[in-house]
Amino acid sequence: MSHDETAAHPDQPAQSTTYAAAGVDVEAGDRAVELMKSAVSATHNANVVGGVGGFAGLFDVSVLKDYRRPLLATSTDGVGTKVAIAQALDKHDTIGFDLVGMVVDDIIVCGAKPLFMTDYIACGKVHAERIAAIVRGIAEACAQADVALVGGETAEHPGLLGVDEYDVAGAATGVVDAENLLGPEKVDAGDVLIALPSSGIHSNGYSLVRHIIAEAGWTLDREVPEFGRSLGEELLVPTHVYTGELNALFSALPGAVHAVSHVTGGGLSANVARVLPPGLVAAMSRDSWEVPAVFSVLGDLGGVPRADRERTWNLGVGMVLVTAASAVDEVLTATPGSWVLGEVRTDDGSLAGELDYVQGAKGVDGGAAILR
């Protein structure tokens, strides 16, 4: 169903009851579409067939004929409980960046270029301006990543969600030639780990964040000196979308990057370990960067042990590039703000007994990682 429709699933409304009386406002959905239409259309390129409002988004994939062996990459995700912060602050134009970052940045890690995306918004009541603000944020992030937003769904679920509640999700598809696929098969001992900075908490660990501030009695309008702004403003900083800059990096320095890890749920070590092959370990140094204040303030406020911080939050590292040693200087120059996080070594078993050693994370029987 497209953004110009709303859907609800009442059990068995009485025959004399209207859809509006059941809590579904179709006209509000139509108003939301009109408000978001120009932002969505701005993401469309020559490959998008048709406009906004179709039952399905159409994308011309004639470009795939130029690939020797095109592999399609797909990803789907949401934003988690960060939407609760947006709802509490009544600010909805940045949550779209979180959604796009969580979806398309999972595609770019294998070297694939994301082509198009669709979104899904479920809400208790359609507030046209609010829905339009969410989708505008999604569209702006898609434009930044050079990804077409080809369709979406806005569903009104009265009785299931509160009138001011909503959740968002999205899915994207990309393509990579098999010979350019990034991953464990290309990683070897001696490769160097280069970290790209996060913009903050991004979209993981907000259940812990919300528990901490609730237990401490902190309100979102509390001014926090370490942040230089309110708690709410800090928590709503949008996820950095890396796809655009990584696309440019892969084009400028082909073969320089062997694998990429998107640091999301599970933290730094678990996500780096999953892009290494068995027999190798990513040895990373904690003193190679300064952890941003938001993590230390919240961690200290909640008495969160270091191990829990490291497996819940990104701690300031948004992406890790596993890079050929010969290309380190070029990659650092091409990615402002990046730094050398560590290196890939042969795993001789000497680190396996250490507390921070992680192996076989995220269901992948792969390599290992350790923060020391």
Q: How would you portray this structure in words?
A:
The protein is α+β, with helices and mostly antiparallel strands. It has 2 domains: 26-180, 60s Ribosomal Protein L30, Chain: A, CATH 3.30.1330; 184-371, PurM-like C-terminal domain (Phosphoribosyl-aminoimidazole Synthetase, Chain A, domain 2), CATH 3.90.650. It contains 11 helices and 15 strands. The protein has helices at residues 26-41, 82-89, 95-108, 128-145, 206-216, 231-235, 243-252, 267-273, 293-302, 306-312, 328-334; strands spanning 48-49, 58-59, 70-78, 113-123, 148-156, 166-177, 192-197, 223-224, 229-230, 257-262, 280-284, 317-323, 339-346, 357-359, 368-371. A hairpin with a 4-residue loop joins β8 and β9 (229-230). The longest helix has 18 residues, at 128-145. The protein starts with 25 loop residues before the first helix and ends with a strand. 45% of the residues are buried. Pathway: Purine metabolism; IMP biosynthesis via de novo pathway; 5-amino-1-(5-phospho-D-ribosyl)imidazole from N(2)-formyl-N(1)-(5-phospho-D-ribosyl)glycinamide: step 2/2. It is found in: Cytoplasm. InterPro entries: PurM-like_C_dom, PurM-like_C_sf, PurM-like_N, PurM-like_N_sf, PurM_cligase. Belongs to the AIR synthase family.
The CATH topology of the largest domain: Phosphoribosyl-aminoimidazole Synthetase, Chain A, domain 2
The SS-based structural class is: alpha+beta
Low-confidence stretches: none
Helical region count?
Answer: 11
The strand count comes to 15
CATH architecture of the largest domain: Alpha-Beta Complex
Going by CATH, the homologous superfamily of the largest domain would be: PurM-like C-terminal domain
Strand content: 15-25%
First-last Cα distance: 50 Å
Protein name: Phosphoribosylformylglycinamidine cyclo-ligase
Subcellular location: Cytoplasm
Domain PurM-like N-terminal: 72-176
Pfam families: AIRS (PF00586), AIRS_C (PF02769)
